[in-house]
Amino acid sequence: MAEGEPAASPSAVPSAEPTPRAPASTPDVPSTAPSTAPPTAPQPEPVVEPAFTVSDGTPRDALLTIPRLGLRGVDVRTYRGFTDDAPGHAIQNTGIAASPHGPRGGTGPGGIGNYQVTAHRTSSTRLFEFLPDLRRGDLVKVRVGDTVYVYEVRTTRITSFREPRSLREQRAAVPGRPGVEPTRAMITLSTCRTREDHAEGNYWSDEFDNPEHRIDKIGVLVRTRPVRG
User: Fold this and answer.
1) Where does the record place the region Disordered (predicted)?
2) Which of 33, 89, 141, 194 has the fewest CB atoms within 10 Å distance of its CB?
3) CATH numbers and ranges of domains, the chain
4) What's the whole-model pTM score?
C-alpha cells in the first residue's frame, strides 16, 4: 500500500437471513362435538348346535349298519334279559341281532348307558363273522324311526363266560366298570371267540354252545342325525 493512502476498510459480510420457524404445533384436543355415526348394535352369540342328542333310553327294535363290515340295515330285536341268555340265543338263531334290556341288560338305542347288541359269528347267518376286524374310529350306525345314532368304536375287550366279574363288566352301564354311574351313550357289540379259543386249545362251552370268551367292541355316541331321504 502507498504511503498517504487511506487504509481500506474490510468488506462487510452480509449476515445470513434468519430461517423462518414453523409455527408451534398445538396439542390435539379431542372434539366435543357429538358423533353422527349410528351406535353399533351388540351382536348375538352364535348358536352352536350339539353334535348329538341322546334318547330317553327306551328299548326299541332298530336297524344296524356297520360300513367297515359291509352290514346295512341289520334287524336288531330288543328283549328283556341279558347277553347271550336263552331268549337272546333264540333271536340270534333266526339270523338277526339281539339287544337285551332290563336290570341285567342295557339301555335302548342312543340312551345314556350301555346299548348292547349280540349276534352269531360262526353259525346262522354269521352276521358278526368279521366283528374282530373293527378298528378304533370305525363308525356304527343305529337307526330308530327317523333318527340315526352314530357311534364310534373306541376299544376292544374280551369277556369270559366263566368269570362272573368279567360278565358284570360286559353288562355294566359303563362297560368294564360295574357300579359306575353312566354319563355317556355307549354301545357294546359282542360275538363269540370260538375260533381263537379252539386255536388255543380251549373247547369249553355252555348249554347254548357259547365258548368261554366273547369279543366285545365298545363305542361312544358321537353324532345324531335325521334319516336322509
Assistant:
1) 1-59
2) 33
3) 62-224 (2.40.260.10)
4) 0.78
